[in-house]
Amino acid sequence: MRWPQLAALGAVGTVGAGLTGIAAAFQFALRYRERVGLPHRSPIETSPAEHGLAFEQVEIPAGDRHLVGWFVPAEPDEAPKTVRASARSNASTATAEPPPAATTAADPPDRRPAIVVVHGWESNRGRTFAHVLYLHAAGFHCLVFDVRGHGDSPDETLPINVPEFAADTAAAVRWAAARPEVSAVGVLGHSMGGAGAIVAASHEALIRAVVSVSAPADLVRMTRKTFQMAEMRIPEPIATPLAWFTAAMLLKPRRHSVKDASATLAAGRYRGPLLLIHGAQDRGVPVEHLERIARAAVDGRGRQDDPGVETLVLPESGHRWLYEDAGCRRKTAAFFASSLGGPVAPEIAGERAAACVVERPPDPVYGFGALASKAPPRERTTMPN
Fold first, then answer.
1. Going along 240-317, which residue ranges are E strands?
2. What are the residue boundaries of the structural domains of the chain, listed by start?
3. Other C-beta atoms within 10 Å of 74: how many?
């Protein structure tokens, strides 16, 4: 979101009592939707080829549009290895590892799980490619794509939010599941992509496991937070109802409801394996969002055979680049290997991912695209998305 533009709405927000009028609230919500409804694109600044990885550039059918993506097939396991890969360079080394777990007759050697990677708001497949690096090192096929209105995917004229991220995620999953070399599909999503992953999984049975990173619990809380981050001095008795009304107006052009954009409600419906990851220092989407989603997911699981809900909170991390933590990479890869039946034993997948060195983009942009700050590296993990 463009914070300088959103902050301009503070002239409306600071009038306090003036917002009690329905007409004023309506005008505020329309201006909010106009300023933050559509993302600003970030350029694609890398490719799998820069990291020495074979890939296909693909088009994924999604309703009346096609989404642009990269499919990065897993490497054969005849010579298992870990890869050192950097998002800033092409450097790579290989070191021997124990052989992978044996496959079964039901899961032949040429078939293995794929992970669909979903970026966040105003990001793209290149800026989230670090997830592909360590998941590929762990032995998974990977598909990373641009959500509509982002990267190289088509422009949109209507607002984009969690329901659109969910619909495009489901389309990407169906595309990946149809590949003959894919045995099962999991999804990893960040921020709005993390919320979209949970919503998609609550509807799409082909999604066998979800890792959701830094996801907002619901659009109302997220909208309320944007008021605070833009330093709008709106009294609380007005701010929360205004956030609900503004969120509803943001979703109205596509005929979605606030419930349709709620990762919390979706988590209560989804009963597959779920791992929620968050940074304790996240100022844009506080860790309380993880706690709310996790409670809903646990409450929605009443059968004995329902898988548990796992969480990982990183004490020193903020909203982005949680993948720089080796424990985060280890937990993610091991979770997918356990939930999807391979491609190797969970402990091996985890160690391969942890050994893969990944770095954030060299010139990252902060703040829902708009609180654009060139903060020193030590401050970067505390900045909101």
1. 274-279, 309-314
2. 1-36+219-261, 45-216+263-374
3. 21
